[in-house]
Amino acid sequence: MTAKVTPRSEDYSRWYTDVIQMAELADYAPVKGCMVIRPYGYALWENVKEGLDRRFRATGHVNAYFPLFIPLSFIQKEAEHVAGFSPELAIVTIGGGEELEEPLVVRPTSETIIGYMYSRWIRSYRDLPVLINQWANVVRWEKRTRPFLRTTEFLWQEGHTAHATAEEAQEETLRMLNVYTEFAVEDAAIPVIPGRKSESEKFAGAVTSYTIEAMMGDYRALQSGTSHFLGQNFARAFDIKFLDENNELQYAWTTSWGLSTRMVGGIVMVHGDDQGLVLPPKLAPIQVVIVPIWMEDAQRSRVLEAVYQVEGMLRDQVRVKVDAREEYSPGWKFNEWEMRGVPLRIEIGPKDVEREQAILARRDLPGREGKRTVPRSTLVGEVKETLSAIQSHLYQRALAFRQAHTYDPADYNEFKEAIPNGFAFSWWCGSAECEARIKEETKATIRCIPLEQEPGRGKCIYCGRDAQERAIFARAY
Amino acid sequence: MTAKVTPRSEDYSRWYTDVIQMAELADYAPVKGCMVIRPYGYALWENVKEGLDRRFRATGHVNAYFPLFIPLSFIQKEAEHVAGFSPELAIVTIGGGEELEEPLVVRPTSETIIGYMYSRWIRSYRDLPVLINQWANVVRWEKRTRPFLRTTEFLWQEGHTAHATAEEAQEETLRMLNVYTEFAVEDAAIPVIPGRKSESEKFAGAVTSYTIEAMMGDYRALQSGTSHFLGQNFARAFDIKFLDENNELQYAWTTSWGLSTRMVGGIVMVHGDDQGLVLPPKLAPIQVVIVPIWMEDAQRSRVLEAVYQVEGMLRDQVRVKVDAREEYSPGWKFNEWEMRGVPLRIEIGPKDVEREQAILARRDLPGREGKRTVPRSTLVGEVKETLSAIQSHLYQRALAFRQAHTYDPADYNEFKEAIPNGFAFSWWCGSAECEARIKEETKATIRCIPLEQEPGRGKCIYCGRDAQERAIFARAY
Is B106 helix (H, G, I), strand (E, B) or coil? Predict the structure, then answer.
């Protein structure tokens, strides 16, 4: 029998690491806080990359590559930036057998070195906007790590743009937040709340940070992508100046935005269940697995013939895999591919061969409810429709779950009761003090101030003073 | 007027760095020996990646990702490996503000850490072969660097496979050498010589190293991809063992193979000319540039309309760009896109609009010879055929160039004369001493012992002793 993951209800954290390891998404590395992304997990990440990259190109961005190493002095040029990142740096002090004159930081993010290059490339308003994205690895020295969610090294994309006006940069910041939202909703089937970060939660060096926040299966929040309006902070620190149309020298306005392998952890935690992984069809490395079934050897060749015929029909349309291994029983394989989250299983046995049919079994619906017999003649269409039904069902299910666990507490007592069980969407006066107290008393932070909220006024959930906006409070990864 | 690159004939090395910078393939980084790969250069690299990745998948490989950091002790486990790589290491000694107990090496290559993981993943012959590739950045501390050809950090892919038998591993090594050859010839239009490295030139830790070697425009050789049969060296160092079919514990046999951003430098040096870059159509980020031409404002809108119509016809078929900038003249644009190596230019002026035609100008043929007027009705087909003609012309031209500069010197005096002007394909007795002397006296190294050579015997070009194989000797990058 195939090994089973710890049930979610029993121990969520253990369930998560079990799924990661048993579904072979990742493994622990021999370096503290690092992970190895195994082929199945990497294929999932490649699909994430493709879904994002396509959208970046459609919005006019191009890819480039900047150095891994950043002179330590660069990090120190933007005051808030250095304060935010200093405790997390990995530093190279030896190169080619010799002590380096200036230590090199392994990039934790690339605003500084990219800012330096932009200052050399940008001369005139004609050179703007610069719309560059980089796919790269970054390193942040983390005390407590967890595969995909927080690792010392992680993979991500970081977009860095420069503009002639504040308005354009602000527009870009929100455009990319929107790209992230669209990707999360459409491809990852994850409902997210786009919003603004509070001052204390924003990116070190940003004027305003925006985020998409998602609710995990244990009600905690996951910051799943961020987009920052950097104002002229990095332009001033790195001297990114251009001659405007009136021939006057101006500082540029810059943005940055990033989404990382963390998204893979989000996909696991939003959709997974007691059996293991449940992958949204659009991102699943294997969308359909075909399992042949036979009792006697005499049936074997007829069944396999039908299986490979069906594979041939599907191959150009979906990502399909045949599991014809002889050392495992069909039941074992069912469990295995369920645990690995394959959205749709096709079973073909001797009876199905005779009747020219196949059985479809959905990963997202338990037992009988998700099973259906389909004639071979309409199979391809049915498979595609079913995948699309699974995709939208996963999204709807996650949305309903988040809605069911998002509270509007009447007072701070209700707030404190709500926090362990979900998001609290509450009025906030805007003071960092209330925010800090809430964090201290409930471990909940302001995940974001949602961009979409009904205008109005209320009383701060903590201090009772006048409040103009509501914020999402939650415990977070 | 657009700035011009230094002519190749005048100063090859300067020509190379001019082309890299002016065509905006790369720029120097503020970190010694590092470069920034600019969008145009990165798009070229992405096309290289795609051409290789497709072939890796077709030969059964999957992608994964292993950590950037490797414990120093890992590098030291394989004796030859540590000797080869020690002088080139970048070492992290500080993480999160504290001195690390064990320093971490920034990977120069990943045999060690991947070997460690394979030892955990591989248990039985049923787990074999493991066929994994990684796209990653690596760091080797280099004294003398040159964009793309030799940089402290570079991008590459490294394949790492494990097999049950020596034969299978050997087969894999040559299969991947063949994939590299096919890619170089078909996509990069670069004729390469696949061959074996001599003992002194092989990879640190390999039993046998194979390489593809190409001739650059200055007759020097460029090692453009390597594939290593590692025997059981790394399996023993990292304890990669499996139970074979007889239930006996065996060490696995491993291989590794890599191709890097160096290939971009090779493409520049093989095809480029005095005007700048010449890109093979299969890899060119822009395959076709359309330049509108008008004298009077009245013609502008009609010309542009035709230009965008033609762009629309081509868009799904080729990578096409319209250069409708008004601040530059058509002549300036011609020079610009020639310098940037776009394989095919389409010119459309008022007369062409009237006659429903367009002018095609090939980058690889000078002036009139490469120009042709084509009716709009057959344009798409003509463009595609012309691109394919350019692709094969570039290959044939490079092959003819290499053949014209490959010598079969009769004696060592002729050999010494040949070396500054090309490759010498000479008998070699196999002794490291002759090899070292030749290197000392001529700066030529053994690039490879070509796999395809007529069997026979001869006299070593240096010592005159009996020799069973011929080697390619050349100065190299």
Answer: strand
What's the token pair of residue B29? 């980084």
Chain A residue closest to B285 (CA)? Answer: A62
Is residue A1 pLDDT above 70, yes or no?
A: no
Closest in B87, B153, B155 to A69, CB measured: B153
Contact A428, A469 (CB under 8 A): yes
What is the distance in angstroms between the Cα of B22 and the nearest Cα belonging to chain A? 12
Residue A261: closest C-alpha in chain B = B65
Q: Give the whole-angstrom CA distance, residue B392 versus residue B395.
A: 5
Is A60's Cβ below 8 Å from some Cβ in B? no
Same domain? B167 vs B126: yes
Torsion from C-alpha of B435, B438, B443, B448, nearest 10 degrees: -40
Domain count, chain A: 3
Q: pLDDT tens, B321-348?
A: 999 999 999 999 999 999 999 999 999 9
**Which of B31, B72, B260, B264 to mutate to probe the A interface, most A CBs <10 Å?**
B31
Interchain CB contact of A190 with B (< 8 Å)? no
Q: In whole angstroms, what is the distance from residue A165 CA to residue A171 CA?
A: 10
Beta strand pairing call for A320-322 and A288-292: parallel
Tokens describing residue A167 = 């308005």
Under DSSP, the state recorded for A200 is: G
Task: Identify the domain containing residue B320 by its residue range.
Answer: 288-383
**Nearest CA of chain A to the CA of B65: how many Å?**
5
**pLDDT of amino acid A2:** 58
Task: Give pLDDT, residue B1.
Answer: 46
Whether A159 and A247 map to the same domain: the answer is: yes
As a whole-number percent, the residues of chain A with pLDDT over 70 amount to 100
Q: Tell me, yes or no, if the pTM score tops 0.90.
A: yes
Is the CB of residue B124 less than 8 Å away from at least one CB of chain A?
no
CATH number, domain of B53, equals 3.30.930.10
CA nearest B68 in A: which residue? A153
User: Are B223 and B363 found together in one domain?
Assistant: no
ipTM of the complex in this document: 0.97
Residues 306 to 345 of A: which have CB under 8 A from any B CB? Answer: 327
Instruction: Kindly state whether A264 is in contact with chain B, defined as any CB-CB distance less than 8 angstroms.
Output: no
Closest CA to A215 of A177, A161, A269, A263: A269
B420 and B314 in a common domain: no
Amino acid at position B400, single letter: A
Residues with Cβ within 8 Å of A468's Cβ and at least 6 positions away in sequence, in order, are: A430, A457
C-beta atoms of A96 and B87 within 8 A: yes
Q: List the single residue in B37, B94, B95 with the smallest CB-CB distance to A65.
A: B37
Rounded distance, CA A469 to CA A223, Å? 20
- Distance of residue B133 Cα from the nearest chain A Cα, in angstroms: 9
pLDDT tens, A88-112? 999 999 999 999 999 999 999 999 9
For residue A34, what is the nearest residue in chain B, using CA coordinates? B67
User: Do both A31 and A166 map to the same domain?
Assistant: yes
Distance CA A330, CA A25 (A): 23
pLDDT in tens, A229-277: 999 999 999 999 999 999 999 999 999 999 999 999 999 999 999 999 9
The list of chain B residues with pLDDT below 70 reads 1-2
Tell whether B354 and B412 lie within a shared domain. no
Q: If you measure CA to CA, which chain B residue comes closest to A133?
A: B39
Q: For B398-412, how does the pLDDT look when each residue is reduced to its tens digit (9 = 90+)?
A: 999 999 999 999 999
| CB-nearest partner of A93 from B64, B94, B121 | B94
| Whether the Cβ atoms of residue A216 and residue A151 lie closer than 8 Å to each other | no
Q: Are A322 and A177 part of one and the same domain?
A: no
* CB contact A70 to B (< 8 Å): yes
